[in-house]
Amino acid sequence: GREWHLVARPQGWPTPADFALVEAPVTAPAPGRILVRNEYLSVDPYMRGRMNDAKSYAPPYALGEAMHGGAVGRVVASAAEGFEPGDAVLHGLGWREYADVPADQAFKVDAGAAPLQAYLGVLGMPGLTAYAGLLRVGRFQEGDAVFVSGAAGAVGSVVGQVAKLRGASLVVGSAGSDEKVRKLVEEYGFDAAFNYKNGDVVGQLAKAAPEGIDVYFDNVGGEHLEAAIGALHVHGRAVLCGAIAQYNDTTPPAAPRNLATVIGKRLTLQGMLVGDHYDLQREFVTEVGGWLRDGRLRFEETVVDGFDNAVDAFLGLLRGANTGKMLVHVG
Ligand code: NDP
Q1: Pocket of ligand 1 from Cβ distances under 6 Å
Q2: Rounded to an integer, what distance in angstroms lies between the CA atom of residue 215 and that of residue 150?
Q3: Residue ranges per domain, the chain?
């Protein structure tokens, strides 16, 4: 089987030369392990951070080794109790065609309840991030006005829809293309949306939410966060989930310049990591899974075909080539 290695640490934007496709032996699993043929790989923004040799909440990828990431696939051989060939599993050894996974780090998923790859997106880590971030970290209340950036992505599209389904008075999203903006309003039920590439965020947000907002779900950072701080009401909350606008920056951004207004407005700006919120998993799957089945919550995937194209998928994600969850179909 083949696997993708990181071979150089990107400076600024990653390039294909930072990665290499390497052939690796596929061996029978040792006791307590399973061999999985991956079907879908996840590419996620956090992976960019793991390519740097910097201390962070997740350790850096080692140079010359296979990268890690979410994946779903089928067990092809098992030396672990409770796993049989054919079982569908979710695990963390993506970026490879075959994964030799410790059984205690593999989770069986119900391929009948949802398409396998949904466990990497709407019913998986990004979905839980949206759910826990909005409801728990953001302390969303019925009647709140919500603004979410990165709104057409895996996390953002769920944030906006959960807010709406839970009774938000207003849901505004921003995204990087007119087509994404159209979808947010026409298909995802957002009250308003704007393309941040078409003009300043402050002005476009003021037009979309003239009365201001109660909760800001930040996937982007920088100018978006600054604009949201300006629009938040007294006692408003900002969920700092991601800052993708700066992941490839080599110098820190200037914004937000209005941090001092946090004082007078008694705002809460809270960082979050999804890993702290797996106790909400069951509640999340029940509520969001129910909305999916009823057709009240939509989700989209952008699937890049072929293991060879996994790096292109990752680079595309950073550029906004995806709507909804970006996935690689191993084929
Ligand atoms: P998305 O599906 O949202 O994909 C990333 C999107 O970011 C792109 O589609 C692109 O859309 C947008 N983007 C890229 N560059 C910029 C930019 N300069 N300014 C504004 N938007 C940009 O990814 P996810 O849903 O998986 O992740 C969304 C965010 O949530 C990321 O910041 C990620 O790091 C974070 N995250 C945090 C977690 C946590 O535990 N804290 C867990 C999971 C995700 P567009 O066309 O709109 O520009």
Answers
A1: 44-46, 126, 129, 150, 152-156, 175-177, 180, 219-220, 241-242, 244-245, 272-274, 317-318, 320, 322, 326
A2: 15
A3: 2-121+300-329, 125-275
